[in-house]
Amino acid sequence: MNYEQMSDEDINTEVLRVLYGDVVDYWSLSNCGTYLYDCGPVGDAFYKIELKDYCNNPAHAWSVIFENNISILSPSNVTDEWFAGYGREQIEYEADFYPIEVWAENPLRAAMIVFLMMNGDNDDL
């Protein structure tokens, strides 16, 4: 799956799907558009998942970044893009190695793409 070509909303939905499973597909969007809800199998309950903007809101993205050990590095004089990566290992000559890495203008979006690559098909690796 080419995550770089997806919209922020699609990436946010995919992150929710990884966190909550495919059950997200069966939930309904609230009228106010701020959460998904489900009334349970017989309609006698009310469950909700707040819609989060993982690609643009650090408060929403931080727990995903922290809990999954995703690294973020700021742009340098070589590039104006942010780096996000996972899987730092010490290899020969103490070099850093990230088997999953993404470069993007938005650091949170890059980190969420790394998260999706960690949890999905890794054809892009």
Describe this structure in words.
The chain is of the alpha+beta class and 125 residues long. It has one domain: Bacillus phage protein. It has 3 helices and 8 strands, in the order H-E-E-E-H-E-E-E-E-E-H. It has a 3-stranded antiparallel beta sheet with strand order 1-2-3, with no helix packed on it. Helix 1 crosses helix 3. The termini are close together. The relative contact order is 0.19.
What distinguishing features does this structure have?
125 residues, alpha+beta, Bacillus phage protein, three-stranded antiparallel beta sheet, 3 helices, elongated
Secondary-structure map:
Layout: H1 8-20, E1 28-29, E2 35-38, E3 47-50, H2 58-67, E4 71-73, E5 82-86, E6 89-90, E7 96-97, E8 100-104, H3 107-119
Antiparallel strand pairs: 1-2, 2-3, 4-5, 5-8, 6-7
Concise description?
Helix content is 29%, strand content 22%. The chain has a 3-stranded antiparallel sheet, with no helix packed on it. The protein has a 3-stranded antiparallel sheet with strand order 4-5-8, with helices on one face. A two-stranded antiparallel sheet has the order 6-7.
Strand arrangement, major sheet: 1-2-3
Whole-Å distance between the termini?
11 Å
The averaged pLDDT comes out at: 84
Name of the level-1 CATH class: Alpha Beta
Computed Rg: 17 Å
CATH architecture: 2-Layer Sandwich
CATH topology: Bacillus phage protein
Q: Which outline best applies?
A: elongated
CATH superfamily (homologous) name: Bacillus phage protein-like
Share of helix, binned: 25-40%
Return the structural class. Answer: alpha+beta
Note the total helix count.
Answer: 3
- Count the strands? 8
Major β-sheet profile:
3 strands, antiparallel
Strand content: 15-25%
- Summarize the helix and strand pattern as letters: HEEEHEEEEEH
Low-confidence stretches: 90-94
